[in-house]
Amino acid sequence: MNALNLAEIGLLKALQGLIGCAPLDRLFGILTTLGEGGALWIALALVLLIIPRTRHIGCSMVLAMALCYLGGNLVLKNLIARPRPFQVDPSIRLVIPPPREYSFPSGHTMNGFAAASALWHERRRAGALALALAALIAFTRLYFCVHYPTDVLGGIVIGCASGRLFSRIVNAFAERRAAHV
User: Fold this and answer.
1) Does 22 fall in a domain?
2) Which of 133, 117, 105 is nearest to 63 (CA)?
3) Which domain range does residue 133 map to?
């Protein structure tokens, strides 16, 4: 176990020691499940795609999450191949089913921040609520010791960059299209 993993596992164990309890296990279990496969964020994006005046936001969200899935989950996770904290330290007791993929970056976090960031760039108030929910879901990944803090931080950075990128691209495309109509 390298020094960074050891330090991060120490933080995760301290977090569990401070706030770990059955009621939070249940509440955070629900929240972390909402982030599985980006389900919550995909549903929100689909609703926004249906409404003509928010279609561009839904499009930005879908594209940002697609980039995160392809670049983060399929490429980075397998390229970096970082084992999860509970795989490195067998004393960590899981209360949720163990994820099967590698640890870096956090997919729950990437998807949440990609979608929430794309929304925030268009609708600040709704985006702020979405960012708060994305942060809470990201926190559950630390609470359950299925990601290191740097996995979550990496997911935040990649997700926010992806959301911003596709917000700009979709808006530029819409402006260009409007200019030619």
Assistant:
1) no
2) 117
3) 46-179
- The CATH number of residue 128's host domain is 1.20.144.10
3-state helix, strand, coil in the chain (%, to 5): 80, 0, 20
Q: Are 166 and 116 in contact (CB under 8 A)?
A: no
Domain-located, residue 132? yes
pTM for the model:
0.93
Domain count, the chain: 1
Residues 6+ away with beta carbon under 8 Å from 98: 84, 86, 146
Percentage, residues of the chain above pLDDT 90: 87
- Alpha-carbon distance values, 27 to 14, 23, 30, 134 (Å): 19, 6, 5, 15
Using CA atoms, how far apart are residues 141 and 102, in angstroms rounded to an integer?
Answer: 13
Residue with tokens 């956090």: 106
CA 61 to each of CA 16, 58, 123, 141, 170: distance values in angstroms, whole numbers, following the listed order: 33, 5, 12, 22, 10
Task: Note whether residue 7 is domain-resident.
Answer: no
- Among 79, 58, 74, smallest CA distance to 163 is for 58
What confidence tier does 37 reach under pLDDT thresholds 50, 70, 90?
confident
The string over 114-129, giving b where at least 16 C-beta atoms fall within 10 Å of a residue's C-beta and e elsewhere, is bbbbbbbbbeeebbee
The alpha carbon of residue 181 and the mean position of all alpha carbons in its chain are separated, in whole angstroms, by: 37
